[in-house]
């Protein structure tokens, strides 16, 4: 049965495209437009395509696939837009509409279902991945694989990404992770910590350090047992219904504890948690609960600053430090000053601002894997500004950004003189916490 134009308009959120006046303020802040110089790969170009669907001028929806697939979803355009266009909402609705109609080949359909429904949301599956990587590292297999050169032959450039991964933690350390940690000294807040899926599997040490820093700053920290993936990867891939299911599971889990804040340490996850109220706004049963959850959601930098910062932070003044902010922290959560305030509170720090710091690094979840060439073009632009700082330490606030900046350092052959760290890692170093 052929869909009516009204149905398409509703599904693609055509009404929201009318706010776009095609002024072009979004063009210089859009990474894909800056590197590609193609109008359909700009925010206003993509909006215009959706608008043409709503007006019946485009009937072959496959025309939208490449422009939407190549969008990073960094949402810098929203920050630059003078008319308040809800680009993120239009993008995710359009992607979901395309995925709903797309006939994936059987292997791709199976892979998507497995990853989105059985791997990312499963604590057990993600722990297995983390433990397997630890075994791969500690058994000597990692060194042997790298020595043979076979890593360079892996599909999707996975060998390059493997070389950027942080040191894995042992299964024993995972099991020993406490569910509750008391504040050191006077208690200022009680917080629940959001572990995430990829963060807990591949960056477990950063999660552990996050809990320690929160306790050091004066927080009682609770790690909620029944939490799951935030749903960001699902929403960005057009799997909106699955994203909603995960949001409901998280909301229900975190409602079990009476806390002041729900704290995350990943810009992408934090943005998704921050928008649960929008995701579930039309669900009468969950809308108010989602709004209550969102009201408590905070990035770790916000809570550390609210606690008055961390005591006795010291840096090596011989290191030049620069900061690469997460797009989703900046453009969605609107968290901009707190990470900088924490860095600048470190005694002896030699901090250097990066030009065009707010331009995306090209990571965007799994964008750098599925759109490798486009991602590397964006990363190369980012590395020009990174190198210009002369920094020996690059600070990030998101796991994807961390991997991407490490990859950029490798590509520029700077790994002997430059390192990339999550903000939490650097703060822990400055506080003498290992």
UniProtKB/TrEMBL annotation:
Residues 10-41, 61-85 form the 4Fe-4S ferredoxin-type domain. Pfam families: CCG, Fer4_8. The keyword Aminoacyl-tRNA synthetase does not apply. Keywords: 4Fe-4S, Electron transport, Iron, Iron-sulfur, Metal-binding, Repeat, Transport. Its EC number is 1.1.99.14. It is an enzyme of class 1 (oxidoreductase). Binds 2 [4Fe-4S] clusters. InterPro entries: 4Fe4S_Fe-S-bd (IPR017896), 4Fe4S_Fe_S_CS (IPR017900), Cys_rich_dom (IPR004017), Glc_ox_4Fe-4S (IPR012257), Helical_ferredxn (IPR009051). It catalyses: glycolate + A = glyoxylate + AH2; (R)-lactate + A = pyruvate + AH2. Its cofactor is [4Fe-4S] cluster. GO terms for molecular function: 4 iron, 4 sulfur cluster binding; glycolate dehydrogenase activity; metal ion binding. Component of a complex that catalyzes the oxidation of glycolate to glyoxylate. This is Glycolate oxidase iron-sulfur subunit. It comes from Aeribacillus pallidus.
